[in-house]
Amino acid sequence: MRPRWFTETAADHSESYAERFRALAAEGADLAGEARFVDALVPPGSAVLDAGCGTGRLAAELHARGHDAVGVDVDPVLLQVAAADHVGPAWIEADLATLALGREFDAVVSAGNVMVFLAPGSEDDVVRRLAEHLAPDGVLVLGFRTDRHVQVVDVEASARGASLVAEQRFSTWDLRPWQDDSDFVVMTFRRPKESG
Ligand SMILES: C[S@@+](CC[C@H](N)C(=O)[O-])C[C@H]1O[C@@H](n2cnc3c(N)ncnc32)[C@H](O)[C@@H]1O
After folding, report:
1. Minimal CA–CA distance to 53: which of 33, 78, 17?
2. Which residues, judged by CB distance below 6 Å to any ligand atom, belong to the binding site of ligand 1?
């Protein structure tokens, strides 16, 4: 199965997506909300994986804030844009469902609806792979729309299955409280200190 990012979007979707984000950056739009959230969760100089990094805005902002940021994405068009627009983070082409970077991170973050653009049925594998890239006491952060394909309870079950502990749930990146009818969720999970 291929990610919905490829199968449920138009042929030139990656290019138009990248252009949209370049235009927003040129307008001075605030594209750093997710980075502020993650920055508040980890000590200075942390290793952070931006899982499904797209054009790299989040990893780039985390690098600018002094973190060792790595961006991974399955879309070569977006990764090319990330590498052209942002010096600093490492950019890696890989599928999150089979991710094996051989290192651990203090935080792993998937922002901008990555969870709803995965290949159907791969969500459990992706959460497990992301959990495997967390250092002990590391934090996983997932932000996604709740009205498309992926249910909060299912993601929580995947995280439990990956031995992660649910910690926080918000409805926005600026910490608005979660409501049962929220159409967006930001969730955090912790790898226990003493786990394997
Ligand atoms: C809406 S974009 C968000 C990009 C970025 N996180 C942001 O917020 O700007 C969704 C991203 O998920 C990526 N993606 C979807 N399935 C993936 C997979 N299995 N492995 C890696 N990346 C994936 C897509 O390639 C795309 O870059």
Report:
1. 78
2. 3, 5, 52-55, 57-58, 73-75, 78, 95-97, 111-114, 117-119
